[in-house]
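Hey, I was hoping to borrow your eyes for a little while. I've been puzzling over a protein and I'd love to understand its fold better. The fold is given in discrete form, as structure tokens running alongside the sequence. I'd be grateful if you could look everything over and explain what you see. No rush at all, and the record is pasted right below.
>
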Amino acid sequence: MLSAQGIPIVIAIAAGAGLAAVLGLVVGASTLRLREDYLAIVTIGLSEVVRLVANNEEWLTRGTFGVQSYPIPLRDWEPNLPGKLLAIAILTLLAGFGVWQLWQSFQRQKQAKSRKSLAVPMIWAVVGGILLVIAYGNGAIALWQYKSAKAGLMLLVLLALALVYGLLEFLAKSPWGRVLKAIREDEQIPRALGKNIFAYKVQSLMLGGAIASLAGAFFAWQLTTVYPTSFDPLVTFNAWTIVVLGGAGSNPGTILGAIIFWAYDSLTRFALEELPWFDSTQAGAFRVMAIGLILMGLMLWRPQGILGKKEELTLGR
């Protein structure tokens, strides 16, 4: 499968991830001397600069016309019966892996918490499991019918997610990940042990940029046409919402947060427009306002998120 420029898609993805990592290096080298809120403000401002450049430099990005008519993976794949069964089997394994990870995360919390404090994680873990089963059913039906390449794209997204998840879990438990956790807790301790704090921060930012680039590629394929306005600050806000909702320092929590956010987004997208009090514009604004209020309440009531740990937070230190 070739991209619109005749480059194999796998190579195009790798090149995009590499460029995003280089951008992370440049951003990190110039901004990581800042702390906390100031770093967030600068990085969000930089993302807006990139979007505005893409919107105005038509010779490079086609400007407001965007990029159109590019191929997506598995566009020409027409699976036969064995192919459909294999795709559904892979989807089943991935769904089972997701349920297993949620269960393992809940079990770890069970060992460290009282029964009362487990009520919220248990309820939401059950809800997340039910939503995951519903999503699995819809995905299996889409793969069985296979009316468009979007069904195959869904499977590729889940495979990529599983690989990235496994990588992040491995890195979190590796010496590199433990140094990053030590830096988060108190920079002076790893610095006293001879660790290059700045280098570790830049490396983590480069890794995050590469992963974000991979997510952006799948997002572009899902949209089928990319405009600069497709990557407005609301996309960043949604990703941040998922992480905060699922839990600080918890990869399974991020998966749970994504499932819950997907359910909220899907249900309210259609349900609100059926109510007589909202038109389409008002429904969209209300959805954003509602999720903002939910986040405010969550930060006050359970700042560590559903599957997060209070010891993972640096708030109030």
Summary: Residues 1-77+172-228 form one domain.
